[in-house]
Amino acid sequence: MAGKVWFITGASRGFGRVWAEAALERGDRVAATARDTTALDALADRHGDAVLPLRLDVTDRDAAGAAVAAAHDRFGRLDVVVNNAGYGLFGAVEDVTEHQARAQFDTNFFGTLWVTQAALPILRAQGAGHLVQLSSIAGVASWPMLGLYHASKWAIEGMSDALAQEVERFGVRVTLLEPGPYRTDWRHGSSVWAEPGPAYAEGAQAPSAGSEPGDPAATAQPLMDIVDAENPPLRAFFGASALETARRVYADRLHTWEQWDHVAKAAQGG
Hints:
Layout: E1 5-8, H1 14-25, E2 29-34, H2 41-47, E3 51-55, H3 61-75, E4 80-83, E5 89-90, H4 98-126, E6 129-134, H5 147-167, E7 172-179, E8 192-193, H6 220-228, E9 235-238, H7 242-259, H8 261-266
Parallel strand pairs: 1-2, 1-4, 2-3, 4-6, 5-8, 6-7, 7-9
Helix pairs in contact: 1-6, 3-4, 4-5
């Protein structure tokens, strides 16, 4: 079904830009947010009134509410709310500063929460709507030097899983998107690096950017398929390697839990 109204955070580049363009190209309307709306000028020039550029720093709860309200006032409804804004924080857990840790959660987790809370009254009143929360394969598995980024995505996973159960009766659907590695600027322009201490300097080498297997443009139609589905999934991987990674991670977890189940039973008590 075409003719949807979208609200997309972080629409100036990366996945957000790809998805905004794809929605507009098929005739949908998009409220596109960015911290600098000049990055959205080309979208507005090409698609006119179908685009509502909105300046938004998702860490500002009041601003998130005002942006969602402005989109609803302009278009009359919201069908798909995409919480895409976020960035990567690289560094050993021991080396990350308090400011860096709080800033990571303020954007990745709390930004998602503020937009979600602002949109839910509208979606509930409509009796329909779809929240698309950008998680990651990093919300399922973990790698060294990304501990705080993982923590923010695992928080989104837990919050959104519970949320899906809370709002299903109102006709609101929730999907966690879990992309693998894609050729966005996640490892470069938008990332933050903790200053490595001597104990972790060897592991603090910048990962290569631009050689990731995933093409962001290829995600456009799969996302359209998900938001158009009568029964969209709670979780959806993007990328060919993600499912195998998840299989390995969960097999390891199950093996450990089974191996230590005698301790779990002993801890039950009487």
